[in-house]
Design goal:
The protein contains seven helices and two strands; from the N terminus they run ααααβαααβ. It has about 160 residues and is mainly α. The chain has one domain. It has a two-stranded antiparallel sheet with strand order 1-2.
């Protein structure tokens, strides 16, 4: 410490991160809708050619086997992964999030890792397959976005949040 009473005070400078706001719920909704439309462009023809539409439109038609239903679900997951994994890993964005100009980050606003992607989308897709309560849990998952932190259940599980780019 200096004995000169006229010298500037000395202190250690600590760089603080700017408090980054979470992305708006509307932008997240539009990104999700865009991702869904992209997925439907792949899944609807697949569902048509596997006969899954027949059982939906005609109650007398036999329901597709569990093997067909599981195959279509697996194909949908594979399509999503092929289409988005690289962008999620590199930028924290699906194609829908790119269109909405938002991205997924950790709670420390750092880029997400593969573990975050697997937790987030494993939870997001997986809870729908829980017999009896999957649909209800899926609704609760997305309704959690109305909390103060604007984080869905899959954000809470993965330790992520969505911000503006």
């Amino acid at each position: 410490m200096s004995t000169d009473v006229y010298s500037a005070p000395e202190s250690e400078l600590i760089e603080q991160k700017e408090d980054i706001e979470s992305a708006s719920r509307w932008f997240r909704l539009w990104a999700s809708i865009a991702d869904t439309i992209i997925m439907l462009l792949f899944l609807l023809p697949l569902m048509y050619f596997t006969g899954m539409f027949d059982s939906l439109s005609n109650p007398d038609a036999p329901e597709p086997s569990a093997l067909v239903q599981g195959g279509v679900a697996l194909a949908g997951f594979a399509f999503f992964a092929l289409l988005n994994f690289y962008f999620l890993y590199r930028d924290g964005q699906t194609l829908g999030k790119k269109l909405a100009n938002i991205k997924i980050v950790t709670l420390n606003d750092e880029p997400i890792k593969v573990s975050h992607i697997l937790k987030r989308y494993g939870f997001y897709w997986g809870i729908g397959y829980i017999p009896g309560v999957g649909d209800l849990l899926g609704i609760i998952n997305v309704l959690l976005i109305f909390g103060k932190q604007k984080r869905c259940g899959h954000d809470l599980v993965a330790g992520t949040r969505v911000i503006d780019c």
